[in-house]
Amino acid sequence: MYYNVEPLRTAAEINDFLAAVGRGRYGDRNRMIVLVGINTGLRMSDILSLTVDQVRGHDRALIIEKKTHKKRWVYLKNLRPALETYTAEMTTGAPLFVSARGQQAITVNGVYHAFQQAGELLGRQDIGTHTLRKTFGYHYYQQTHDIAGLMMIFNHANEAVTKRYIGIERDTLERSLDQFQLGLG
Length: 185
Known about the structure:
The chain is mainly alpha-helical. It has one domain (about 10-180): Intergrase catalytic core (hpI Integrase, Chain A, Orthogonal Bundle), CATH 1.10.443. The protein has helices spanning about 10-20, 25-40, 45, 50-55, 80-85, 110-120, 130-145, 145-155, 160-165, 170-175, and strands at about 60-65, 70-75.
């Protein structure tokens, strides 16, 4: 089976995914994971490493990325009202996203399973933990056309890698082929 994680390209796809992950006992947590991911572009391992005191009352947080070991400022200002509501009853120093088992953070694998269930509910097989990062990148690029800034955010070495990662090359190719036909008319 061919499997490729894609960004959520429309507001309707984002809203449908938020509704799907928001179902069930851990719906609030899962929705907040999605909101943090699509608004920051962080990798899932970095999202799940966040603590309550890193985000509560802050417009930005300094993290060290797990994959690259580089320091990165994460912009939280637009998420702050949602984070304040989400963390209102949480203990300072606790993981931001707690697992079902107790006080430790949910694992990337746990989020993957929740996303797979949401994907099944939506009839999609292209949803995974990288969907959030790709969605951030796709919409950031669509709104700003700042590929250099996005490359810096993602720590990518070149433009082609970034465009391929967020699905821009595929969109451009499909648009160019939309009216292309030979021998059919």
